[in-house]
Every structure is written in structure tokens, then in C-alpha cells.
Amino acid sequence: MLPNSRCETRPPFLVLLVTSAQDQLEARSTIRQTWGRARTTHGKRVVTYFLLGYSREHQEQLQNESSLHKDIIQKDFTDSYYNLTLKVLMGLEWVDRFCPSTSFVMKTDSDMFVNVDYLAELLLGMNRTNIFTGFVMRNFKPVRCKSNKWFVSEQEYPQEKYPPFCSGTGYVLSADVASRVWNISGIIPYFKLEDVYIGMCLAELKIEPVKIHSQRKFHIGKVKFSVCKFRNLVTAHKVKPYEARIYWKALELAANEHCPGDRTA
Ligand SMILES: *[C@@H]1O[C@H](CO)[C@@H](O)[C@H](O)[C@H]1NC(C)=O
Ligand SMILES: *[C@@H]1O[C@H](CO)[C@@H](O)[C@H](O)[C@H]1NC(C)=O
Ligand SMILES: *[C@@H]1O[C@H](CO)[C@@H](O)[C@H](O)[C@H]1NC(C)=O
Ligand SMILES: *[C@@H]1O[C@H](CO)[C@@H](O)[C@H](O)[C@H]1NC(C)=O
Hints:
Elements: E1 14-19, H1 25-33, E2 39-41, E3 44-54, H2 59-69, E4 72-78, H3 84-98, E5 104-109, E6 113-114, H4 116-124, E7 132-137, E8 165-174, H5 175-184, H6 194-205, H7 227-231, E9 235-236, H8 241-253
Bound molecules: 2-acetamido-2-deoxy-beta-D-glucopyranose (4 copies).
């Protein structure tokens, strides 16, 4: 399934690719109505698409959803956690084939809150090429404990340490980097942890993660909501659909309020 993108006639500035599971309809509806709403911010177009694999049980409903919203990218691999790398590569392939004229691509998940306006503002101050940014994980070792969700055997990954990577909760690539990652993925053996896999591709390409700001803007855990806190972050994790709606409404209502240390307009 392909979305309706209009990339050739109106290239977006930022494409948000949100990994989603078949039964997360409520999360997708919420994202469409809140932070993922297609819009223009700082004069730049931002669009959101959802990445899904196949599950027979929900396919008809998903087809209906796709014909209504035209924002779903799907291929016929089994939708499962250890196929997440396939899902993200599908997104990068889509950008490479159908939307290479975008400036940036963000990969994120459906339990995140993304402050897209602030992200766009920060990206406007950056180079348009060679960018890979997010919450950087350095010197991480494979988990060798079998009962762990992130267990990795020595056969899957014999080395002691992972290359630097950005947490899969939210990372941003410039479009050239997205295309190069997709291109090189053909020769990097499959690895089930998606964010580590992207790190492996980038290590091969010799691209280092960069900082988007001197302060932390990508949060990989839950962040206690306040208008001023959320105005100044890019991602917060573990956000339920009803919470995303409350946060969104609060941010809208407080649009004219000032926060300590506000950036001057
Ligand atoms: C999908 O749409 C068709 C046609 O509108 C409808 O008959 C069908 O019940 C819908 N299926 C689901 C699962 O929503
Ligand atoms: C990933 O998808 C492929 C293709 O559908 C399937 O054969 C495989 O079993 C899936 N892997 C996992 C771990 O679900
Ligand atoms: C942008 O790219 C130029 C040329 O490659 C480089 O000199 C400069 O440091 C880069 N700026 C940032 C903020 O990364
Ligand atoms: C893709 O990879 C091939 C070789 O593996 C290389 O020749 C080509 O320049 C690459 N294209 C891009 C866009 O990086």
C-alpha cells in the first residue's frame, strides 16, 4: 500500500514515518489529529505516514483506513517485533523511491509525542545533508540474557559492542542519508534490532550522529507534562492516545503564554 504523497509537485520539508501495529487504530487516529497532522510550520510542509506489515486478521480494516486517509505504507512481511527492521527499511525505501526531494525524514513510534513545530524549527538551522540525530546511544553492549526482550545471541552479533546508534523512539536523517542507508542495507546482514541496525549502516557509511542542540531534546522515557517542558522538547515516550490529546490541547491553549527562557521570536 502506498500513501498519497504529492512529493513531486510539493516536496515536504519533513516526512514523519511512524511504525505502527495493525491493532493500534486509536493511536493512529490520535496522531492524525494531534502532532502528526499534515500542516505547514515555519513555512515548511510536514507530513506523517504510518509503516505497517501484514496481518490477515486486520487487513480489511486497514485497507479501509488507507483509502480514507491515504497515509499508510505497507508491504507483505509478517507484522512482528523482530521484523521491525524490515518495517523501517520499507520506510527508507519509500523515501528513496517516492519522496527523495524531502529535506528530512524522522522515524518514530506510535507511543511517542513529537513536538513537530519545534523539530522543524531546529532542523531549519541545520545543514540539509549528512545529518543523523536523535538520542545517541554509545558503547552499548548486546544483552546476552535469554529472557530479555533485547536478547541477542553471539551468532546474531559476535562483537562486544554496538556502533553508536540513535534510540528507535525517534531519530532524524537528512534525505541523502536516508537514501544511503537504504542503499547500503543490501550488503549489511539483517539484524532484528532496528535502531542498532541503522547504526551499523551508518558506521559502514562513516556517518556520525550529530547534536540537534546543546541541551537534550529527544527523551526516551516518559516526561511529566508541562507546557513549558513540552514546548522545548522534540520527543517524549510512553504517551497514551488520551494523554497525547490532552497535551496537544494544552499546548494549543497556551500558545500565547511565555515560558522562562523562551526563544525570542
Ligand atoms: C470496509 O469497507 C467496506 C466498504 O465500505 C465495508 O463493507 C466493510 O465492512 C469495511 N470493513 C471493515 C473491517 O471495516
Ligand atoms: C518476518 O516476515 C517474514 C515475511 O513475512 C516472515 O517469513 C518471518 O517469519 C517474519 N519474522 C518474524 C520474526 O516474525
Ligand atoms: C555544515 O556543512 C559545512 C560544510 O560541510 C560544515 O563546514 C559545517 O560545519 C556544517 N555545519 C553544521 C552546523 O554542522
Ligand atoms: C549505492 O551503492 C552503490 C554501490 O553499492 C554505489 O555505487 C552508489 O553510488 C550508491 N548510491 C547512493 C545514492 O548512495
